[in-house]
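From the pipeline queue, job 12 of 40. The input is one protein chain; the requested action is below.

Action: predict structure.
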Amino acid sequence: MMGWFVLLVAALAFGGWFLFRRTRHVACTIDLESTPQEFHAHVELDGVLVNEGDEVLVHGAPSRIALGEKRTMAATATVQQASWPRRVLVRVLGTSGITELYEVGFEG
């Protein structure tokens, strides 16, 4: 009976470790461009490295910019960093799922 209790406690501990996310609020720079030559939206986070499984939410970014406009602005972002087990799982599933992009068919 004690073995089941130990397994349950270990499973709960691992589940808590898997679900744990460290949340950080950081400054960031948003670079937006919508011109005939370029169309992009880039965000540079200050002092945080983003890895597999992490989530980033940028606050204060405009939802659209006019055609022909370039804009660079300062904002804040919330970064939720994944735990080590979640990072490993996302890396394994991500590399196995990328093979779906390789499917090529020829009909003739």
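Job complete. The chain is about 30% helix and 35% strand.
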